[in-house]
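To whoever picks this up:

The nightly regression suite flagged BED-type domain-containing protein as changed. Nothing in the input moved, so I suspect the structure step. Input below, exactly as stored in the fixture:
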Amino acid sequence: MSSSTSSSMGSTNLEEDDLFPLWKHVTLTLKKGGREGNAKWKCNYCNMDFQGSYVRVKAHLLLIKNEGIRVCSVVSSKVDVLSELRKAHEQAENRKKLSKTKMVPLPPSPFNTSTRSVIESTGDFRLQKAMNIGARETLNSMIARMFYSAGLPFHLARNPYFVDAFRYAAESNIAGYVPPGYNLLRTTLLQKEKANIERLLDPIKKSWNEKGVSICADGWSDAQRRPLINMMGASDGGALFIRAVNCEGEYKDKTFIAKLLGEVIHEVGHEKVVQVITDNAATCAAAGSIIEGIFPKIFWTPCVVHTLNLALKNPPHMDEEISAMRIKCFKKYFPNQDERRLVNTEYAKFSGCLEHFGDADSLIDRGAMEPIVWWLAHGASTPMLQSLALKLLSQPCSSSCCERNWSTYSFIHSMRRNKMTPQRCEDLVFVHSNIRLLSRRTPLYTKGDTKLWDISGDAFDSMEGAGILEVANLSLDEPEMEAILFNDEENDDLENQEL
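Regenerated output under the current build:
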C-alpha cells in the first residue's frame, strides 16, 4: 500500500458505497487494499486515527464491543446518528444477501465469455447483433422463470403495463436499479398510483356535470366475515369505483345506509346525481325513501336484476306504469308548474310524432340509432326534454357493476391475503378497477398484442369474436373469462424457428 493525501470515501465507486456504506463516514489516510482490506483512517465524528479493515470501521461506528477497537464516543451520545448508521448497514447487508443468493442456473446461452471478448476486440457489428440475441434469450429465460416460480398466469404477458415496464427498462440506462420491495409496493407506491388514477379520472367525473351519474350500492362480506358496502359511480363513461365502507360493528338499518349514501352523494355533488341504485330489500327501499326526501331530484331505483322476477310473476300494465313514472319524474325535475307544462308539451310532440318528430328521417332513425345518438340528432326542437333524455339515458338500470366488482374485491382479498386491512384492500380495488376502466377507453385496448388484455386467460378457446367487447365491459372476473383465443404471431414465429 502507498501513502495518499487525505481523501474521503466519496471517490470510491458506486458499488462499494452501496455494499460498504460506512466507509463514507471515515477519512482515509492510507489507501486500503481491496474493498474490505486494511487501511489507516480517521473517524469523521470523534476525529481519532485507527488502522484496520471494514470490520473495525463497522465495530467503531456501530458501537460493537470486543472487536479490537474502541467504540466512537460521539456516535454513542447521538441516538439519531447511530440509528442512521445502523439503517445504512442493514440495507447494505440485505443487498449483499440478494447479490449472493444461489440461483438455479438458467438455460445455457450459445454466447460465452470468449465470444464477448472477440466482439469487444474486433468491434464486429454482426457479432454484436448476435450478442444482443443472446442477451434477449437470457432475459426471456429469466422472465419465464419469474412466471413459473410465482405461479403467475400466462396472460399477464399481455398486460400492457407489464410490457411497458420492461420496454422502459430496456430503453433507459438505470445502473444499479433494484425493483421495489414488499413494503414499498403496498404503501408508498400504492398511494402514488391511487393519486395518479384519481387525476386521470377527472375527465370522467367532469362529464357528470352534463350527463349525470348513478350511485350504485351493494353489500358483501370479506374473507374475515367483515361486512362491506361497495359504492360505484356509473354513467355512460363506465363504472367508477368510489369507495368500500367497512360496516363491522354497525347496525345496518335504513338510517345507517341512507347516511352512507348521503355521504357519497355529497362527495360526488348532489346536483350531478340522477339516482341511487340498490337491491329491493326493505331496508334499502326505506333508505332510498330517506334519500328522496333529502334530495328531491334524486331517484331511488331498485336493481332491475332483483325486480325482474317479481315483475314476471305479476306483470303490470306497462304503459300505465311508465306514464305514472314519467309524471313522477317530471314533477321531481321541474317543480315549477310553468316549466313542467312546457316539458309536457315537448313530450307530447315526441310521443305523438308531431312537428319535427314526424319527419321521415326522425321516424326511420328511431329504430335504427342508439337512443342517445337519436336524441342528439333529432331532439333539438325540444331542448328541455332532450337534456333530460340525455341525462337519463346515460344511467345504468342495475347495480351489477357493484356485484361484478365484488369478484375483483374477492380476487384481491383472497384467503392468502386475508390479513390485509380494509383500507389497503379498498385502495387496491380502487386502482385495480379504475385503471382497467381507463385502459378500456384507449384505442390500443381493441387492437395489437395487448388487445382485451384484462379478460384473456390461459385456457384457450375461440369465441369467434362475437360479442367479445360486450363481454369485456361486463366482466372483471379473470378466472371465469379464461376462454378467449388470441393469435400470438410473434411466439409462433419463435416456435417455428426452434423447429
